[in-house]
Structure formats: C-alpha cells, structure tokens
C-alpha cells in the first residue's frame, strides 16, 4: 500500500495544509498565503541595543497625536478633527466617485501650512495639473509626481519631506524586489508596509487611495485595512451630485460621523446643511409623500419618501423601490395589507426617496407606510407632518434612536407635527412649536393622518382596532 503523502505547504492565515501548492487557500479563501513548510525554524534573538527605549506613559507627548485641520470642514468631521501627523488614511470608493478630486483639494489646502506631495500612479502630472486648475487647487507648495515604482516614491518623499503625502493609488505602485504585477497581494502589502513605516518615522500624514471590487468592498488583502489608521469609504449615486464620506475605521476619532459633499464641474464642496437636497417642494400637499428624519452617523437628515400605487396589469404585481431596502418595503406592504386592511396586495407599488439618498435604517418604516396609504387613498399628507418609527410584523410601531435630535432638525426646517412611537420622548421634551403625536401601531398612525387632512376621495383603508 502506498504511504499517505506528507503535507508540504501551509496557509499562513489559517494553518490549512496541503501536499501541493495552490494560489488560494480553500479554507479561508485568502490569495497568496500558501507557503512551503521549510526546514528547522529558529527563535528571533533580542536586539543588542534599543534606539527608542520604552518610557513611562506620563512622559509621552500627547500633542504629537493632535489633529490638524485639512481646510475641508466636512472631511475634518469624518476624520475626527483633521489629520494626525504620521497617520495613514485609506480612502476607498468606486471609480469616478470623486476621490482624486477631493484629495487634490485637500493637498492644496494643506499646502498653505507646509509642502505636500501628490504621487499619481494612474495619471500623468499634466493631467493632475489640469484638474487642479479646474477646481482651483494650484499651490506653490504642492508637488506632483507621476510614479509607479515604490523605490522612486520613497526617494521623492525623502527629497520633498512633505507634511502630507497623497498616493493615488496603492494598487498602482509596485516594488522591483517583489515578484508579481502591481496590485497583487504581495505588492500591496509591501507598498503599504513601506509607506506606513516611512510615515511613522517622519511624521508625514498619508492619504492612500484604494480601489474597490465589484461588490463594493476594498480591493486587496484584508490586512491592508488593519495596517492603516483610518479607513474612509466614498458613497454616492453616479447620477447624483451628492457624495457621502463615512469612516469605517478610525483610531483617532469616532466612526459614526458622515461628511456630505456636492460634486460639480468646478470641484467638490462640502455641504454643512444637506437636508434641503432630500425634500421636494413643500408648499403644497401631494398624495403619496411623507417626510422622515434619518441619522447618517450623528447627523440627522430630513428626507422625503414618495410612493405610487396603481392597478396591476399582470398576474404578479410589481414591487419597485429606489433608495430603500426592497425586502423591507415588501414587509411594510404586507403589514399594511394584513393589519390595516389596505388593498395593496394586488397593486403595483413604487417607492422612492428624493434626491438619490439611500435609507437603510428601520426608523423610516412608518413614513413608508404613511406614503403608501396616502397613495392608495389619494389622501394628501400635510406638508408639515413627518413620521418616524420602526414597524413590526404585528403592526406595532417601535422606538427609534435619537428621536429628540431628529425632531430638533425637523423643527428647524419648518415641520410642525411629528408621528413618533409611544414613549419615544420619555426623557426629553419636544422642540418648541412642534406637536408630537405618539402612536402605538400603524392603524393609529393612519387614523391620525386622516384626521388632520380632509379626504379628497372616499378612503379604502380601515384602521385596525
């Protein structure tokens, strides 16, 4: 009988072994982590001398980790106050979303405080100069370099000694000492490790541009996100000018802040007050619309939800939603049909948000239900009324997080009536000039909306008992 073969290769990530080399570990699905099991291993000896010995924590200067403003208020909000010297920020997003435009603007503004270096591995220096002139980001202290070799990039850093380094992008830089093309696992690790080591030793803040895969995740090895200090994600619809910047990871600040930007031909500008972008004309009441307040990080945004219900011409009714979770909209339709007696089961329903905003939190459920009911009955919701709350399968309305903060923002924009879950303001008082109506279920909310607006057509909804 043939003796079993001894495993000769092991995955450095999960420890899976195999007798043959493979490019991808079948256990943890990591690329380039399967290595040959070598000979005898030796222990690492201690260093003969220490260049930076450990110090008592009270002797460490905390000012070295202080934030420095980039000059872009919305970007500073996401970073927690600005860039920290020696920090490495990974900025990821889809192609054409505005990453390079924003970072070029940041590099020019930081150039007023010291020299900055912008290294482009995707465009020539002339192309970057043309964009800088278009967005008004030309500065005497902004240096441009079009390089794809890691050794040359490190030499550029040593020569300029910049206050800020922008590397666009990390997947286009390669080291001649590492096998493989630029962008593979080994190259990304080497580039990121070398840049991070240089940033920590010189105190240079670094902004790395990262590519994303087709499913929206950051391309490259997962260890890249662990090595950097901050991971920032760009979001936005390509057909809309609105761009949202979120911090996925932040060692120097919170991760629940969101920056809003307007991407136009003249560049990208911050939006300190973006709520007006998500509302249509509020002068008249139109059936099928209802406003709500969502939380993007810590920032409340007043958004409007529109619904349209029509008679279906096919056996299986259509269910279309834009900017909302389609499965959650289907659940709300089922609750309306079962708990509120709404004749929506055999009708085509279309639900959308205004301004291209995407709503993922469940606090918008009640506004979706009110908009659908308004579209069914042709009963217009008052333009100064909003609704917020999560809807359960039994029809109950559950509390949302940060109701007081949401209502304060809505009152500032002129809303005077709010439908909220019962007990949502137990520890806070409603804003001045706003009437807060607490509801326990969907039926009570629809009754309240009906009571506040005369019917234009006979209603077909009967509230649940």
UniProtKB/TrEMBL annotation:
Q: Which GO terms describe its molecular function?
A: ATP binding; ATP-dependent DNA damage sensor activity; damaged DNA binding; hydrolase activity; zinc ion binding
Q: Decide whether keyword rRNA-binding is in the record.
A: no
InterPro entries referenced in this protein's UniProt entry, alphabetically: AAA+_ATPase, DNA_repair_RadA, P-loop_NTPase, RecA_ATP-bd, Ribosomal_Su5_D2-typ_SF, Ribsml_uS5_D2-typ_fold_subgr, Rubredoxin_2
Where is each RecA family profile domain found? 64-212
> Which GO biological-process labels does this protein carry?
recombinational repair
Lon-protease-like: annotated segments: 348-465
Q: Where is this motif: RadA KNRFG motif?
A: 249-253
Gene3D superfamilies, per the entry: 3.30.230.10, P-loop containing nucleotide triphosphate hydrolases
Transmembrane segment boundaries? none
Protein residues bound to ATP: 93-100
Q: SUPFAM superfamilies recorded for this chain?
A: P-loop containing nucleoside triphosphate hydrolases (SSF52540), Ribosomal protein S5 domain 2-like (SSF54211)
> Does DNA damage appear among the keywords?
yes
Keyword entries, A-Z: ATP-binding, DNA damage, DNA repair, DNA-binding, Hydrolase, Metal-binding, Nucleotide-binding, Stress response, Zinc, Zinc-finger
Q: Name one GO cellular component term.
A: cytosol
What family does the entry list?
Answer: Belongs to the RecA family. RadA subfamily.
Function (record text): DNA-dependent ATPase involved in processing of recombination intermediates, plays a role in repairing DNA breaks. Stimulates the branch migration of RecA-mediated strand transfer reactions, allowing the 3' invading strand to extend heteroduplex DNA faster. Binds ssDNA in the presence of ADP but not other nucleotides, has ATPase activity that is stimulated by ssDNA and various branched DNA structures, but inhibited by SSB. Does not have RecA's homology-searching function.
Which PANTHER family does the annotation name? DNA REPAIR PROTEIN RADA, DNA REPAIR PROTEIN RADA-LIKE PROTEIN
What's the entry's take on its domains?
A: The middle region has homology to RecA with ATPase motifs including the RadA KNRFG motif, while the C-terminus is homologous to Lon protease.
This protein's name: DNA repair protein RadA
Q: Which organism is it from?
A: Janibacter alkaliphilus
């Amino acid at each position: 009988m043939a003796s079993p073969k001894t495993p000769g290769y092991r995955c450095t990530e999960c420890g899976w072994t195999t007798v043959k080399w493979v490019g991808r570990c079948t256990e943890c699905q990591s690329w380039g982590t399967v290595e040959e099991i070598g000979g005898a291993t030796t222990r690492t000896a201690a260093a003969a001398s220490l260049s930076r010995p450990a110090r008592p924590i009270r002797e460490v200067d905390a000012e070295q980790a202080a934030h420095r403003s980039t000059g872009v208020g919305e970007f500073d909000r996401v970073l927690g106050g600005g860039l920290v010297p020696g920090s490495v920020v990974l900025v990821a997003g889809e192609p054409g979303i505005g990453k390079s435009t924003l970072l070029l603007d940041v590099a020019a503004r930081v150039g007023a405080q010291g020299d900055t270096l912008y290294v482009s591995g995707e465009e020539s220096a002339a192309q970057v100069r043309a964009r800088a002139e278009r967005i008004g980001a030309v500065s005497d202290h902004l240096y441009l370099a079009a390089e794809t070799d890691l050794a040359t990039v490190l030499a550029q850093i040593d020569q300029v000694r910049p206050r800020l380094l922008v590397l666009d992008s990390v997947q286009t830089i390669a080291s001649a000492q590492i096998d493989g093309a630029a962008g593979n696992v080994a190259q990304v690790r080497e580039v990121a490790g070398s840049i991070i080591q240089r940033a920590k030793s010189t105190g240079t803040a670094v902004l790395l541009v990262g590519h994303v895969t087709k499913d929206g995740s950051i391309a490259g090895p997962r260890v890249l996100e662990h090595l950097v200090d901050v991971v920032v994600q760009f979001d936005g619809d390509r057909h809309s000018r609105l761009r949202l910047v979120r911090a996925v990871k932040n060692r120097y600040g919170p991760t629940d802040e969101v920056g809003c930007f307007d991407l136009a031909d003249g560049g990208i500008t911050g939006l300190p007050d973006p709520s007006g972008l998500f509302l249509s004309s509020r002068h008249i009441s139109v059936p099928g619309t209802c406003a709500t307040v969502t939380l993007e990080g810590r920032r409340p945004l007043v958004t409007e939800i529109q619904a349209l219900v029509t008679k279906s011409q096919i056996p299986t009714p259509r269910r279309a939603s834009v900017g909302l979770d389609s499965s959650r909209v289907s659940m709300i339709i089922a609750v309306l049909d079962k708990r509120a007696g709404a004749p929506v089961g055999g009708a085509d329903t279309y639900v959308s948000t205004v301004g291209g905003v995407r709503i993922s939190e469940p606090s918008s459920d009640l506004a979706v239900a009110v908009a659908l009911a308004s579209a069914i009955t042709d009963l217009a919701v008052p333009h100064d009324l909003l609704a917020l709350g999560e809807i359960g399968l039994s029809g109950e309305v559950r509390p949302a997080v940060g109701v007081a903060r949401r209502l304060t923002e809505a009152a500032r924009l002129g809303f005077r009536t709010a439908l909220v879950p019962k007990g949502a303001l137990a520890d806070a008082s409603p804003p001045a000039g706003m009437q807060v109506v607490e509801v326990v279920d969907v039926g009570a909310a629809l009754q309240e909306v009906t009571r506040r607006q005369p019917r234009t057509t006979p209603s077909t909804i009967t509230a649940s008992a």
